[in-house]
Amino acid sequence: MSYQICVAIVLGGGRGNRFGGKVPKQYSDFHGEPLIRKVVKAFTTHPDIDAVLPVIHLEDKEVAFKALENLDALEPVIGGEERQHSVKNALESLTATPPHNVLIHDAARPFISSSLISRVIHSLETEKAVVPGLPVTDTIKSHNGKRIISTLKRDRLLHAQTPQGFRYKNILSAHRNVQGDAYTDDAAVAEASGLKVAFVNGEKKNIKITNPEDLDSNKNKSDIIEYRVGNGFDVHRFGDGNHVVLCGIKIPHNYSLIGHSDADAAMHALTDAILGAIGKGDIGYYFPPSAQKWKNVSSKVFLKYAADLVKKSRGKVTHVDITIVCQQPKIRPHREAMVNNIANILQINASRVNIKATTTETLGFTGRNEGLMAQATATIAMRPNDDDLTD
User: Fold this and answer.
1) Which pLDDT score, from 0 to 100, does residue 213 have?
2) How many domains does one find in the chain?
3) CA angle 301, 305, 309 (to 5 degrees)
4) For residue 286, how many C-alpha atoms fall within 13 Å in the half-sphere facing its CB?
5) pLDDT tens track for 63-97
6) Domain for residue 221, yes or no?
7) Of the residues 183, 216, 249, which one is the last residue of a structural domain?
8) pLDDT tens per residue across span 238-295
9) Is residue 1 one of the residues assigned to a domain?
């Protein structure tokens, strides 16, 4: 079984001899960060990408690990002699936990947009192979080395770009069976295996960096990633019952929490934190306690709704931190289950969820075991709309 839906492979194992410079072009500085870091971030912050796998050259291990430091990416794979060998190495490394889809992108294309990534991914819902492309506007001619042979009909020609998307099992099979080394992209490998390749609209800014001046011409076209932080707070009193629900987990206790829904204070606080980070009000606006349809409902509904709003806002939850304040019940025995449940609802790695508990040293209403409270902080990575950036 696959635990990932879509993995992005970022190819950074080339030498970039035409670019020149002291380091390969994928490690060249652009606005204070290496190109490959900019590319990997574009995928790690996309809500539909589950994992990012960089491919690097053996000689670049030190510079690569520094360039990718603190990014939420998989351990880099060492590339091969040719591009297709590098891709095959990356695909083979995923066989233990195979994804459903893979996107394959050149680290030398740093101006990739979130919308283009989404177009490729959505096309894979009906296609097995997808390539972004731009119409050819120049007149294209074939030659024999000395003279023009013919003029090609450009209405059937495309400039192929990356990321190119594939069903994982199909492109892995194609790379395993392909003969020769003359393939310049993965679509060509797919075509050689008999796989039909669809295309979606590419983007003019999604150029491949070949010369240093390519960076100068695009210095104002980079996508902006911003990080937003929201906080939430909730309190519920104890009443008759034999358990409480915290982070969606039923915990035995001498009392239950009183509330219109399931009174999950921790999940309510986290929902408010996420809504706050994206500027979308609070939980009461969407789920008012005066509405009977929310009575006794699981708070998972609220948190899932907030997570969906994050995606619609071009964002991705990158980390959440929850603090539960109570004398009883003990939280530690249930912490792992709580972490995993929150991670599952938000569709993020469990390492991005932190849950902790404390007491008030018998002070206040929590110290008197009259109830408990929870507070939460959520960090969201977002690509703002252009009109969000006005002064």
Assistant:
1) 60
2) 2
3) 170
4) 16
5) 999 999 999 999 999 998 888 999 999 999 999 99
6) no
7) 216
8) 999 999 999 999 999 999 999 989 999 999 999 999 999 999 999 999 999 888 888 8
9) no
Bridge partners of 234, per DSSP, are 374
Looking at residue 25, its amino acid is K
Tell me which H or E stretch contains 311.
helix 300-312
Judge if 212 and 279 occupy the same domain: no
Q: What CATH number has the domain bearing residue 243?
A: 3.30.1330.50
Count of C-beta atoms within a 10 Å radius of residue 217:
11
Question: Does 232 lie in the same domain as 204?
Answer: no
Q: What is the DSSP letter of 207?
A: P
202 plus 241 within the same structural domain: no
102: domain range?
Answer: 6-216
Q: What's the pTM? A: 0.57
Tell me if 39 sits within 8 A of 84, measured CB to CB: no
Average pLDDT over residues 113-121: 95
Q: Please indicate, yes or no, if residue 170 is contained in any of the structural domains.
A: yes
Structure tokens of 366?
């929590």
pLDDT digits (tens, 9 = 90+) for 328-356: 999 999 999 999 999 999 999 999 999 99
Q: Decide if 238 contacts 258 (C-beta within 8 A).
A: yes
